[in-house]
Amino acid sequence: MKNILMALIGILFAQAAAAQKDSLSFDENDKYIYYQTASQPGLNKDTLYNRALYFMKTAALKNKLTLVTADKEQGVVTGKGSFPVSKKAFITAHEDGAISYTARIEVKDSKYRYWFTDFVYTPYQRNRYNAYEPVPGINIAMEHTQGKIEKDDFNEYLKRMLLNSKQVGGVLKAYMLKTSSLPKEDKKIKKISTKEW
Question: Using CA atoms, how far apart are residues 88 and 99, in angstroms rounded to an integer?
Fold first, then answer.
């Protein structure tokens, strides 16, 4: 009986540790962050950098995540992304706003890390054509939404932030395993003949 109890406690601790590892946290600047590290034994920094850059440039999330900066020397790729959040009303749901974020990927030999942070909520309003559009000039950092967003909506937005971060992170991990990379640019100089026209 004692062994069964110890095994049960061990399983519960393992589940709690796994849940904490894959969740939103606060960074040193008190901002929400989704942070992950991964190892790729046998791969050098250049290969991992090319794969991270390939992800930012060609991922299926093209309309949701775009490349901002790429520094090969430092092994850093950053991007900006956003995703819509919905509000449920009775039976239907409508877009209530969008949450934008910053993505950062850093690579070293045999390992890489990535995180999503700077989550900013932009509310939507209905325009005269009955379509939802961003409210101009209102951008609220998710850390400062207390009293500006209803508690239920805030909790739903946190869930969406975590879900989106997991999805984008899953796509990134798949790209980091691929052997393909950005095509090398051919720097051919076009020759022009001045004898014929």
Answer: 17
Domains and CATH numbers, the chain: 25-177 (3.30.530.80)
Give the length of the chain: 197
| Pair of tokens at residue 82 | 């956003």
Contact criterion met (CB below 8 Å) for 38 and 112: yes
Distance CA 31, CA 115 (A): 12
Give me the residues paired with residue 148 across strands.
none
pLDDT tens for the chain, 197 residues long, are 444 444 434 443 444 334 445 688 888 888 899 999 998 888 888 889 988 888 888 875 666 788 888 888 898 999 998 888 887 666 666 778 889 999 999 999 889 999 999 999 998 888 888 778 888 888 888 888 777 788 888 888 889 999 999 998 998 898 888 765 455 555 566 666 666 66
Q: Do residues 44 and 175 make contact, with C-beta atoms less than 8 angstroms apart?
A: no
Is 187:62 a contact under the CB 8 Å cutoff?
no
